[in-house]
Amino acid sequence: MPYQENNMLAQILDKAKQQLEVNLPFVLYRKPNSTMVHAGYQSTSTVFNVNSFDEKGFVFAPFNSDSPIVLLKFDEFLEETYESVAVDSELEIDYPSSTEGKEMHIELVKKAISKIENTNFKKVVVSRKIELNCTKNPFLLFSSLLQKYASAFCYLWYHPKVGMWLGATPEILLKLENKRLTTMSLAGTKSYEKDKEVIWGTKELVEQNLVTEYITNALENKVDKLLYSKVESIRAGNLWHLRTKLTADIKDESLKSILQVLHPTPAVCGMPKEETKSFILEEENYKRAYYTGYLGELNFKQENLRTTRRKNTENNAYKSLKTVSELYVNLRCMQLKDAKAIIYVGGGITKDSDPEKEWKETVNKSKTMLFILNTV
């Protein structure tokens, strides 16, 4: 059944359509497991950049950390709740069975394996893009994302001088509340099969452990009280992933310095970081742009209510403001450009990788966005 725009979001969507008509920036987004859609609108077409990370706004950062980071500065901000409609997550549709680009991607995977066998590479993430004709309404696509992927960070982002992107990412890069840091390592992928327990192999377990190890080492001298959870299996759409949550208190470090060591993580780049990043930039047959970059709220102010109960006095409510940055890795995304949808997919390569299976993993990951394109 085709998706329709949610009437409860009429004000937010109408304002975004007006922005699009006059080529002005906006972003619509919803955080995981929430029914609140946030919308920010910029009144000029100026491209603002992040430099010190003391700025406030919505960040849109590329994979290549040497490239400029775009910041939307909101002149108007709206929030609306919407009614979540149950969607059959096991709904099967006919996806394009094209093998276009298969030979090229398998050769890239083989190059990556050779690098791991003959150099100091432990893991490297390689990716590809899929281009499809698309004239679908972007606001319908966004409404579809909201209903289909309730546990993901869903967004529609537009800047006339940069482009239009949308996605449903399962991975948070970091959340920083004052000095309290939360992040995660997310790696390893298996297809979801109804009524079947996911069984992880050595390749996936090693891959996930490498990401956790990297984040732990990168943060070691920058944080106190670093804690991490047990490895858990989480489902994102038609895929399973392995995840470890990490929390810590940052010392006297700036957000900029934390991001410099975290991005790009081995989950989207590799280990060692600089060498594998160079391999990706040189060997992938296209530019990732904002795929595997990050996006989200930078230095938002949130009101914190605290109620205390004291003897012989009425309850007293105290208000305080906290500064929050909440950034997500730009996975399961696509770019809308020139009547085309460009879908980006990739996978982590280790010494245990099988090229054919790695190709299949990218096919499975592409279904997140293909589902949306085929049901609107």
Automatic annotation (TrEMBL):
Residues 103-365 form the Chorismate-utilising enzyme C-terminal domain. Coiled coil: none annotated. InterPro entries: ADC_synthase, Chorismate_C. It comes from the Bacteria. This is Isochorismate synthase. It comes from Maribacter vaceletii.
